[in-house]
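How a chain folds remains the central question behind the approach discussed here. For one protein, we set the task of working out the structure tokens from the amino acid sequence alone. The sequence in question and its structure tokens are set out directly beneath this paragraph.

_____
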Amino acid sequence: MATSAEVTKQPYDAVLATICAVTDAIRDLGSVPSGELYARLMDRMSRQAYQGILDALTRARLIEVKNHLITWTGPRS
């Protein structure tokens, strides 16, 4: 049986996994048109959630978005 801490932690784990998946995809591609990436994700998240992820990655200086082209600017692994 799950504890209350585990139950409340699950949504955060899901959000973190989603952010990591989007980050990994952008890093692996190097650059990708934003519309193309969102088209692949739109059945999994809202436009607002997608934009929030891009905003966070931009603030962290991991990506740059110019003319709807997302480019990885963070470290390569």
